[in-house]
Amino acid sequence: xxxQIAFLGAGNMARAIILGLLNTGFSPQQLQxxxxxxxxxxxxxxxxxxxxSASPAQFNDGVDLIVAAVKPQVMAEALSPLKNRLAPNxxxxxxxxxxxxxxxxxxxGDSTPVIRCMPNTPAMVGKGASxxxxxxxxxxxxxxxxxxxxxxxxxxxxxAEESLLDAVTAVSGSGPAYFFSLIEAVSQTGAQLGLxxxxxxxxxxxxxxxxxxxxxxxxxxxxxxxxxxTSPGGTTEQALLALKAGEFDGVVSExxxxxxxxxxTLGEEFG
Length: 271
Prior knowledge:
Elements: E1 5-8, H1 12-23, E2 31-34, H2 38-44, E3 51-53, E4 65-68, H3 75-79, E5 91-94, H4 101-108, E6 114-118, E7 128-134, H5 140-151, E8 154-158, H6 165-173, H7 175-192, H8 197-217, H9 222-229, H10 235-245, H11 248-270
Parallel strand pairs: 1-2, 1-4, 2-3, 4-5, 5-6, 7-8
Antiparallel strand pairs: 6-7
């Protein structure tokens, strides 16, 4: 029998994952969603899902995995209609940042297998990077189904300890914002140097895409790729010297560490 997946929440991330699943071979009849917002449900209606409803209490029987795609502050309320009502073989996949497994099980029932996921926004264009952690109740079949979901919108990486999701948050969950900030700074400076803003932005974006693609495809360290671009006494060397003078590596490291620390704090608050 085909796996049945239900989405709690029908916002942008849920829609992106649903589209990813449909694009990778899942049938609309395997998918359903619940959201109190009729407008959000209307956005999914053309996709022909098996069921759309205002409450998860109306999910069809036989759901194998529930994807909780709601904001952390409303998670307890959103899961309350399902508390202690799920079948023994139904697992929960939470993509809400910060809420630990212990809290999720308190919201939905101690016997429910829980998987936590830290996705990122490039999932909306099929280029996501997701870190997953499975609690001890999760079976191999449930792990495989969870990974099929995140693989449909990018790459999936499992971590062995729940605390490592804070590092995932710092590296990839919040990571797109770091790169967006760099893109802004480079393209704005290009415009200040005389390029048309649209051309400067296009050059910056293509360079970012090209550098990431080259690094991903290469079998040499990123440091070597950097060195290959840096001729002694050349333009790139001058730029890198300016970054070093501004303690670029230290600033980036501190930003990532502060992000991880905040993720840990949020987890403690929700816990």
